[in-house]
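TL;DR need structure tokens for one chain.
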Amino acid sequence: MTRTTNDEVQIVPVAATSCGSDAPGPTISRSNWRVYDRRLYATARTDNHLSRAARHQRTGLPDGCADIVTAAQSFHWMEPTSTLAEIARILRPGGLFAAYDYDWPPTLNWELDQLAQEVVERLVELVKARGLAHSLKIWSKNTHLDRMRESGHFRFTREVVLHHIEQGDATRFLEMMRTNAFSHQFQFTEQEIGFDRLRQAALQHIGSEPIPWYLSYRVRIGIK
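>> reply
TL;DR here they are.
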């Protein structure tokens, strides 16, 4: 983003993979939001320090107080209608909302990519087969932009695609796979979800030395 702001709010749930200390992506330092037990913890790093626990539908922040609100790898966990209404309320006229996510896994090796996709697919199958889906509320990332447009809160919306290259080894790759919200919420064994095969493939194709990771980001923006 090229615009300089004094007040920025970032919404980032701890359950999402981008929240780990080793997660890929740019760091927005003006303020950070964290979720614990579905509550948002806001820390605004401005001249006046503010720390507040709140939910994304009811932040308790003043009307029109923010130039930018961002949801980093997190908007899919939030009920969109009430969340977008709250975001629109705290944005100043002309303010920007950005919901951004990175595509996972990064582009590394087609065989590793395939196994990673199979792990996720197996997780979803197990959740459904064991009747656990009722405890998992998630909204498709592919329809973020549609929901923003349909909300009526933004006069302009569009999607921007960005790319980034950074370094990572097999250990980092596997740790990030483990941060998948499904695997934390439901206790499946590595054999059940195929993580044991993914581990072997990661050690084979990545190894212990960092190699380039090619990451793609999808940023859905709305101007109030």
